[in-house]
Amino acid sequence: MNPESRRVGTMNRLAGFLVVLVLAVSGNAALAATECNTPPPNPPLSGTVVGGVVINAGDFCVLAGANVSSGVQVNSGGILITCGSSISGGIVANGAANLIIGAGADEEVPPVNFVCPGNVINGAVRISNTGSGAPILAPAPSISVERNAITGGVHLIGNQGMIVVANDMINGGLFCSNNMFDLDDEGTPSIINGALHCKFTDE
Predict the structure, then answer these.
(1) Other Cβ atoms closer than 10 A to 30
(2) What are the tens digits of pLDDT across the range 44-103?
(3) Residue 189 pLDDT > 70, yes or no?
(4) Across 101-115, 116-130, 153-167, least confident range
(5) What is the pLDDT of residue 135?
(6) Coil, strand, or helix at residue 21?
(7) Considering only CA atoms, which of 201, 150, 160, 197 is closest in space to residue 177?
(8) Alpha carbons 50 and 46: distance in angstroms, whole number
(9) Which of 12, 36, 95, 128 has the fewest CB atoms lying closer than 10 Å?
C-alpha cells in the first residue's frame, strides 16, 4: 500500500471515530435531562437545572424560580406550570395535558389567588396537540402563555382547548394552525415583533 492510501485509510478511520464520539456525547447529553414531577404540595423545581427538563406522561411539573439550560420538553400527557423562571433553549410540548407558562396579574387576587409571574424564555415556544385541559387545573385554560419575555417565535398547532396569550413580549412572531379555538388575550394584548398568524376572540 502506498503512503497516500495509508493516509486516506487513517483519515477515514479517524472520521468514523469522531462520528461515534459525537453520537455518544449527544446521547449522554440527552440522558442528562432532569425529569420533573412535583405535584402540589411537593416543593417546585427551582434553582439551576443543567441539561434540560423533561415532563413525561402522568408527570405534574412545577417550575418556580428555576434557571434551566437546554430547554424544557413536555411529552404526551404531561402537565407543566412554570412561574418566574428563566429557560434557555425554549419549550417544546407535544400532546401535553395542560400548560401554564405564566399567568395573568388578575389571577393573583381573590377569588383565584394564584401567583405565577411570567418567565424569560431564550428560544422558541412550540406547543402542539394539547388536550382540552386537565380537570385538576379547571377552570384554567388548557394553554396559558402570559407575562413572558420570549426571544423566539411562539407556534401553536393542533391544540384542542382554550388558549390564552396575553401581556407577553414575543420577538419571533406568533403562529397558529388548526387549533380548536381562537386565542384570548384577556384584554391585555402582547407585544409581538415579527409575523402574526393568529386570530384573537375579540377581533
Answers:
(1) 12
(2) 999 999 999 999 999 999 999 999 999 999 999 999 999 999 999 999 999 999 999 999
(3) yes
(4) 101-115
(5) 93
(6) helix
(7) 197
(8) 12
(9) 12
CA-to-CA dists, residue 168 to 8, 115, 156, angstroms: 55, 16, 15
Q: What is the DSSP letter of 201?
A: T
Instruction: Tell me the DSSP string of 29-86.
Output: HHHTPEE----TTSPPEEEEE-S-EEE-TT-EEEEEEEEESS-EEE-TT-EEEEES-E
pLDDT surpassing 60 at residue 144: yes
What gap in Å lies between CA 90 and CA 100, rounded to an integer?
15
Measure Cα distances from 60 to 77, 118, 121 in Å.
9, 19, 20
State the Cα torsion 17-19-25-26 to the nearest 10°. Answer: -170
Query: Which grid cell sits at 75?
Result: 411529552
Got the DSSP string for 88-142? ET-EEEES-SEEEES--GGGGSTTT-------EEES-EEEES--S--GGGTTS-S
Can you give the pLDDT at residue 2?
52
